[in-house]
Write a structure and sequence with these properties.
The complex is a heterodimer of chains A (428) and B (543). With 428 residues, chain A is of the alpha/beta class. Helix content of chain A is 40%, strand content 15%. In chain A, helix 2 packs across helix 12 and helix 12 crosses helix 13. Chain A is globular, with a radius of gyration of 23 Å. Chain B is α/β, with parallel strands linked by helices and 543 residues long. In chain B, a hairpin with a 5-residue loop joins strand 2 and strand 3. The chains are: A alpha/beta (428), B alpha/beta (543).
């Protein structure tokens, strides 16, 4: 190569300086899914079909927050665009739709895909890890997804099912000692995690009833009730999806079967349950668990903020647990994008969560476990009871949160202090 | 296009057709050529008795494309056997894939000759076929001394032969394309053996599924197996909707049936254990008919139907290839005494949990199929036969010359994982070449980036493709979807491979960049996305 003469060098330097100035003034093309004007994210989850009930509000909730963010400057001038595809809760369809998001839509990251089987199918067949595609804040509590070595680009957000079962187990030991406990669980990894958690907690069940995913319905529920009745269960834990909880409670109401219900968070959203025709009264005094504040708690600054935005974005739609979680996820994503630098890349996005994710402001009342060595999201729950109208509120009126891990660690009361809401609910 | 050119291309089509039915001359003689123009045709027989055909355009530029056909049964199939009955052994030469006229036209338009034999021995034949090809190249060069470059390509077992040729004789070929390539004999027949074994132990214990007798008796046993397996498949087709197990089910199968386990779940599990794709010609495992089955059909039924369709497609080859290789090796070659089928489906049991009817059912089925259950006796191989099988030609996966791979992601007979293995091995090879280049740079201060020698063309399935009649019944009379079935390529896709080979042969470099993207897009239904990664054959998880 010929040596560059001094005059040319000066010219080139000047041009480079100008380019550099331009870069700081106007966001430049940085990475896949990132243009000077927008950042594209993709989401697959059930928008139609029997499994969609309740969960199909998550994209609208996330979009409501992103729209708010975009109206307030976006992320360094870029608008966040969320592309949503319906996978109907069919794993093979999730694979096809995720491929579309990555190959055709060229999204920067996948956001909040839902369902253990779906996320596992995508991991095996689409292989986001090999492609370096971040899979942010997945909507499944299967503890295995937090294995960073196996799923290096996947970030959990929900507390794991193991954690939830362990915390439920502690509550049972403290409050239902000597009672006969029954368990309804999904006969897959979702249920396997729950069983592991209950085992760690030392819960002995009088009866365990497994249902295969997709088999839940009124006919199946009648059979379940027969088994719980036969075992004379005093407390029945419903550790399944919303459609299983709804089927069980609906049939129980008809048969006037009323044990002490305990609802897992996945199938415990009252709005969703009531939408299936289950009378709210059936839920009364049932015990529930949540990592985020009660959706009716308008004294909570996050709940108030999110519900106000949602009411304007989707008028007439009930602000429920799925909505709150969807908006919370979008809010955390915005902070991750902001922390990923002026020209974010897939790598810098993941690095931002690794280094700062544990301190992201969000509505959860329990800590998150993100670090350079951990992709564990939230780590606990508070315990509540459902009101006569089906609203979940903390027992005794105060949130008492418990935290634990997905291993053999103890369940302890959390001392976590939640970060205050950033100004205007925008990432700093 | 000029009028003359059109006429010339039309004549080419006719000649290609003619070549496929030509009668060869005496073995090891110089080829007999017709001396015609614009395309001269020559036929002959190699020293081992393989009939061959050459077609050389008048504007021959010195490059010849040698094609290796895939597996052909090495026994006649009696007319009474369903689906494949009436087949007669053939060694008709095949100088382009299936006599594809578009491919021949393309080559001739470039001044490139085509060449191919029907091989002397059918069945699993890479050892003899590679030798045949070496002789064929020599014969062609002697007949046409202007020859400077040889492109080699092949389909299915012909892909193995092509890759083997490039590995053993890299100086003979300038670019190669193993298409819908089979894996090496042991991984390939392990997959076949796993599925046949499962069909036997659950659905019809009278199926032999290997360990056939020597000679004609063994051939007769394989015929009997073909009839039994196709009969069971027919019964399973009915059972998928009714839940009923075949009346020929084993005691183990009947026990599972009595426990209320749907037969569709059992069939799906067998397919997953063997690594059979869960998308087939007509079943995408995604679509459902309008109405009540919209969700439950893809979730619970379609994967089993895909296994049924793919398994039926692959069964004949699985039985006949097993019998063939056993004959070559001198005994039983399939052994699953140590196979951990539960580990094999560790991921799949989550993905297809609903179709498999949940963990309790999955564990019951895996328990029934475990080595601990005497009701599902494992197959034991003859160690001497296994050693002999392993002494057959084995490809190492080394890429010596510019190589184009193309495969359907849901090919039921030669799984895409066979090509994935080469992709993975080449990634290691390329990394080593880069490391060596860097090491050399430290001495010479002249860094030479190694040239990429692999282009992977994935023939992908559409995002959804199962069609339903107004009654809700799936339609299976339409053509197979792209990316499914065996070596199911369009002419445009084959021509793209041919063009890539021509370029690589001429320049030493495979197509890349924008030109490649455009060509791939125009060919249709192909992807060169480096992020695509398909599972290797299950054999590799065990070994």
């Amino acid at each position: 190569m010929k040596a560059m003469n001094r005059r040319k060098l000066i010219k080139v330097s000047a041009v480079l300086a100008a380019v550099s100035l331009a870069v700081t003034a106007v966001p430049a093309q940085a990475a896949v899914g990132v243009s000077s004007r927008e950042i594209k994210l993709g989401m697959t989850l059930p928008m139609t079909g029997t499994a969609s009930l309740g969960y199909n509000k998550i994209p609208g909730a996330a979009k409501a927050y992103f729209d708010y963010l975009n109206k307030n400057g976006g992320i360094n001038g870029r608008k966040v665009k969320l592309i949503v595809k319906d996978d109907r809760y069919v794993p093979t369809e999730a694979v096809a739709k995720t491929n579309e998001l990555i190959l055709k839509d060229k999204v920067m990251a996948l956001l909040a895909p839902l369902g253990t089987a779906n996320v596992k199918a995508v991991a095996a067949s689409v292989n986001p890890a090999r492609r370096g595609v971040p899979v942010l804040f997945i909507n499944t509590g299967f503890s295995g997804f937090a294995e960073k070595k196996k799923y290096p680009t996947t970030y959990t957000v929900l507390p794991s099912y193991v954690m939830e079962a362990k915390i439920m187990g502690e509550y049972i030991k403290d409050n239902f000692a000597g009672k006969k406990i029954g368990l309804l669980y999904q006969d897959d990894d979702f249920g396997t995690d729950a069983l592991a958690g209950f085992k760690t907690a030392g819960v002995n069940f009088a009866v365990k009833v497994a249902y295969a995913s997709g088999s839940q319905g009124a006919a199946a529920a009648a059979g379940w009730i027969t088994k719980f009745k036969a075992a004379e269960a005093d407390v029945v834990i419903l550790f399944g999806v919303s459609s299983a909880t709804s089927a069980m409670l609906g049939v129980a109401a008809q048969l006037k079967y009323a044990p002490q219900w305990m609802l897992g968070s996945v199938g415990g959203d009252a709005t969703t349950i009531k939408l299936t025709g289950v009378p709210a009264g059936v839920l009364y005094n049932a015990i529930g668990f949540s990592p985020v504040p009660a959706t009716t708690d308008m004294k909570d600054e996050y709940v108030k903020f999110f519900s106000d935005i949602y009411a304007k974005a989707v008028p007439g739609s009930t602000f429920d647990l799925n909505v709150l979680l969807g908006m919370n996820t979008a809010f955390m994503t915005a902070q991750a994008l902001q922390a990923a630098g002026r020209n974010p890349t897939r790598k810098s996005l993941m690095a931002a969560i690794d280094s700062k994710g544990a301190s992201f402001a969000n509505s959860a009342l329990v800590p998150a476990g993100y670090s350079k060595t951990s992709h564990v999201g939230l780590t606990g729950y508070w315990v509540g009871k459902y009101s006569p109208t089906g609203d979940l509120s903390p027992i005794g009126g105060t949130y008492v949160t418990y935290t634990t891990d997905s291993g053999s660690g103890a369940v302890v009361k959390s001392t976590y202090v939640r970060p205050a809401m950033p100004a205007k609910g925008l990432p700093n | 296009m000029k009028k003359v050119r059109i006429l010339s291309l039309l004549s080419v089509t006719a000649l290609v057709t003619t070549v496929l039915v030509s009668v060869p001359v005496a073995a090891n003689a110089a080829p007999a050529c017709d001396g015609k123009s614009p395309i001269q045709s020559c036929v002959g027989v190699t020293s081992d008795g393989a009939p061959y055909a050459m077609q050389v355009p008048a504007n021959f530029n010195g490059t010849v494309a040698l094609y290796s056909h895939g597996y052909r049964y090495n026994v006649d199939i009696p007319a009474g056997i369903p689906l494949i009955g009436g087949y007669k052994i053939t060694n008709t030469p095949e100088p382009v894939p299936g006599g594809n006229a578009d491919v021949a036209k393309y080559f001739f338009s470039q001044g490139i000759a085509i060449l191919g034999s029907g091989f002397a021995r059918q069945g699993w034949n890479p050892d003899s076929a590679i030798k045949t090809n070496v002789e064929l190249i020599d014969t062609f060069k002697k007949q046409f001394p202007k020859t400077t470059k040889v492109i080699a390509w092949g389909s299915s077992l012909g892909g193995v032969i092509t890759q083997g040729l490039a590995e053993k004789y890299p100086n003979l070929v300038s670019a190669v394309a193993p298409m819908c390539m089979a894996d090496n004999v042991e991984p390939q027949l392990t997959g076949a053996g796993d599925f046949l074994w499962g069909i036997k132990v659950l659905f019809d214990p009278t199926i032999k599924a290997g360990n056939y007798s020597a000679g004609a008796a063994g051939v007769a046993e394989s015929y009997a197996d073909l009839v039994k397996v196709f009969t069971v498949m027919g019964k399973l087709q009915g059972g998928i909707s009714t839940g009923a197990w075949p009346d020929t089910a084993s005691a183990t199968g009947k026990a599972l049936a009595a426990a209320g386990i749907p037969v569709r779940s059992a069939l799906l599990l067998l397919g997953l254990m063997a690594g059979i794709p869960t998308q087939s010609a007509h079943f995408d495992s995604i679509s459902g008919p309008e109405g009540a089955l919209k969700l439950s059909f893809p979730l619970a039924v379609s994967p089993a139907l895909a296994i049924l369709e793919n398994g039926t497609n692959a069964a004949a080859l699985a039985i006949l290839a097993t019998q063939d290789v056993e004959m070559q090796a001198g005994g039983a070659i399939f052994d699953n005494t140590k196979t951990d089928y539960a580990a094999r489906v560790d991921v799949e049991r989550v993905i297809f949990n609903a179709a498999l009817s949940g963990n309790t059912v999955i564990d019951a089925m895996l328990g029934a199929l475990s080595a601990a259950n005497p009701g599902a006796p494992r197959a034991v191989a003859n160690s001497a036969a296994v050693a002999k099988m392993r002494a057959l030609h084995i490809n190492t996966g080394k890429i010596n010359v510019p190589t184009v791979l193309m495969v359907g992601v849901a090919d039921p007979i030669t799984p895409a994982g066979a090509s994935q293995r080469l992709v993975d091995l080449y990634a290691e090879q390329y990394a080593a070449e880069k490391a060596a280049a860097f090491k050399a740079y430290q001495t010479t201060r002249d860094y030479k980036t190694p040239t990429n020698k692999l282009l992977m063309l994935w023939n992908t399935t559409p995002s959804s493709y199962t069609k339903f009649a107004a009654t809700g019944a799936p339609i299976t009379s339409i053509p197979a979807a792209q990316g499914t079935n065996h070596c199911n390529f369009t002419s445009a896709q084959l021509v793209l491979v041919a063009k890539s080979l021509v370029q690589a042969s001429s320049t030493g470099k495979l197509p890349s960049g924008g030109a490649l993207y455009t060509a791939v897009r125009k060919a249709g239904n192909l992807s060169i996305d480096k992020g695509i990664s398909v599972p290797l054959l299950k054999y590799y998880g065990d070994n």
